[in-house]
Amino acid sequence: MGTGTNVERRTVLKAAGVSAVTLGLAATACGGNGGTSADGTVTIRYSWWGAEERAKKINQSIALFEKKYPKIKVKTDFQTYQSFWEKFQTQAAGGNPPDVFQNAVGFLRKYDRRGILLDLNSQVKAGNLSLDHFRAGVTKVGEVDGKQLGVPVGSNTMALVIDKKVFERAGVDPATGWTWDDYFKALKTIHDKTKVPGDTGYFAIMYLYDLYLRQNGKAFFTKDGLGFDKSDLTEWWTDGYGRVKAGIVTDPKIVAQDQPKSSLSAGHGASEFTWDNFTVRYSAEGSSTYGLAPIPTMDGKHTGQYLASLMLSASAHTSHPKEAAQFIDFMVHDPAVGTIMGYDRGILASTEQYAAFKPTDTVSKEIAQYEDTTAKSGVLGTITPHPSGADTVEAAFLRIGGDLGQGKTKVTDAVKQFFTESQAAFQA
Amino acid sequence: MGTAVTLVKDSVPTTRKARSAAPVTKGRRGRRENLAGYLFMSPWIAGFLLLTAGPMVASLYFAFTDYNLFNSPKWVGFDNFTAMFDDPRWRKSVEVTAKYVVIGTPLKLLLALGVALLLAQSRRGQAFYRAAFYAPSLIGASVSIGFVWRSLFSDGAVVDRTQSFLGFHVGGWVGNADWVLYCLVALTVWQFGAPMVIFLAGLKQVPRELYEAAEMDGAGPFRRFWSITLPMISPVLFFNVLLETIHSFQIFGSAYVVSNTYCGPADATLVYTCYLYQKGFKDAQMGFAAAMAWMLLLAVALVTAVLFWSQKKWVHYEEDAR
User: Fold this and answer.
1) In the 8-state DSSP scheme, what is residue B192?
2) Nearest CA of chain A to the CA of B301: how many Å?
């Protein structure tokens, strides 16, 4: 650097100028072959979201599959829910999605519209995959406009997961057919008696608001948009924020810090509306005992609940549709796989697997019991369609609802923002 | 990155000079040497064209389109750019980033200069201290430090307890929309080691005789710093200000990790690149995201230009004195 005792002007200018210009974007390139090796062995890629616990079970299942089909190798990878869909979107856009992947109802129309999902009916006709022997109605979840875009592995339903110990201490006993008024009174009782907020933030959960709307003859989504108007949401969020202020709903500051744990399993809330099979996760994560309670109602009867499910889908771009279908078929029907997986992804969807797995732990038993009672009480309705963009809308609902709880946004602004973002998501 | 690029850039004029100095009769050998030179450079050139220049041109095109990654891009002119100003989250991200740059950069440089002044004096164990202060710069950008920070600034953790002990209770910063940005500022300030080393190099080059002369004239420590040290290291200071400002604009990792990927709560850590990422890779609005990237480039270029313009007033170069 120069000969003088001071730094030369030119050197500095150059270094600074170049540094200013090197700000740019980098791109990654992905490549892949068809996945067939010389000896006729076919390799398919299978991706899913979940955690370590699920990974172990899935690897055991795949070992069984590879034993039965020695000419098919399955390569797996997994991420958390959010990262999974970010990665999937990029892979799919590059024309290189995994051959088989876990899917959920909110993504069917989005990726169908983009031509990513294989209509599995063709494989059913070819005899590589069977849609028989499923529990009543569950395969419907994977159907869009007559196409079978996903095959369910397990069914689940929205429920109220509760911290049993806190509920007991407060002397609150949720009863079937209880109303929203009963529920909010219970939250107050719990908070008064135990100092624990009764709920972790019900008003930002899209799938719960969907149930509430269904109880009122509406639904969160129509085929191509939102099924409610601004005044509906203004009322819902105004009440929600009021309950945060009153202390009966967990402070969103705490919720933000508990992530990625749930505030329920972290002990900062006594109940949470979520999918019933999450009880498995919360029981592993938290130190209390967790159970299931009925969804509050308007009229003492209708909960608005329906069966949803996690599914397996295949890529429309796969070079091995037959092998992908055989793999899905094995994963959903093989009884041994059912015993390994248990209720990790919901109540097993096929009758073979449902019959094969006999839950021994109390949590699994309770989930089975819950879905059984819910089904018998006749409250289960049909699932409303989820338009393309439903996933982005769900995330926006959660985020904006959370912001609102922080007291940083006025309800009217939050509602406006949500509607604007939703419109953009449906069009994207 | 800056330094690596500088080295390559610096070598170019040297070879050119060597070439023009070579006798005309050795033209062919010169050309061959030239070819060899370019061959040696080819990995870098290929990398630059394929991984930087190419994507940049593509992104410039996408900035004027509506592109969701799946459908082919649709030309929309300046729509993406005008839409930004109507988007409250974009405005929020600009505000958050500006706050971060304006608060974080000066604090970091002050600390770097302060510690450099202390370490410039000959003391025992000097090498150890330099290494120790520099260490955070090496690991600060890693994801694991982000996690450490997240737990340090949570409810009931060290920072919360110390604060409560001192008598003002805030709770964890991580979940608090009013405080969480300062958690990120603290993280960047903590990495003051890199500018400190540059300051140290600058301080070492200030001629001793200037201080001796000033001391004889009765100048105190403050006067010596103000009238000798500061003007003499002003090019280094300028370099650091420029580098750190540009660097601050690009903050992403720490915001992403500390907020558990949401850049919240209540968008309080929604830094510019984080929103860009969300728009591009979550919402698949690549056109908008590309436009945002170019907007950032323009903003950084503008700030850089202003800094360059301002240096006439406060940066003293050796050649100016001649």
Assistant:
1) T
2) 7
User: Is B284 or A23 the better-scoring residue by pLDDT?
Assistant: B284
Best interface-test mutation with B: which of A3, A7, A111, A404 has the largest number of B CBs within 10 A?
A: A7
Query: What are the structural domains of chain B?
Result: 27-62 (no CATH), 81-321 (1.10.3720.10)
What's the rounded Cα separation, in Å, for the pair A187 and B169?
27
- Cβ atoms of residues A384 and A214 within 8 Å: yes
> Looking at chain B, which residue has its C-alpha nearest residue A84?
B282
Residue with tokens 């728009």: B279
Which residues, in sequence order, are bridge partners of residue A291?
A: A162
**Whole-number average pLDDT of chain A:** 89
3-state secondary structure at position A153: strand
Predicted TM-score (pTM) of the model is 0.83
Rounded distance, CA A292 to CA A271, Å? Answer: 9
Partner residues linked to A162 by β-bridges: A271, A291
pLDDT tens digit sequence for A198-227: 999 999 999 999 999 999 999 999 988 999
Query: How much is the ipTM here?
Result: 0.81
Is residue A93 within 8 A of residue B71, CB to CB? The reply is: no
On whether the CB atoms of residues A277 and A154 are closer than 8 A, the answer is: yes
Domains and CATH numbers, chain A: 42-155+308-357 (3.40.190.10), 158-305+383-427 (3.40.190.10)
Tens digits of per-residue pLDDT, A391-420? Answer: 999 999 999 998 899 888 899 999 999 999
The SS3 of residue A42 is strand
Chain A residues close to B260, C-beta within 8 Å: 256, 259-260
Provide the token pair at B140. 């600060």
- The pLDDT-based confidence of A428 (bands split at 50, 70, 90) is confident
In order, the DSSP letters of B117-130 are HHHHS--TTHHHHH
* Three-class DSSP category at A297: strand
Q: Specify the 3-state DSSP secondary structure of A112.
A: helix
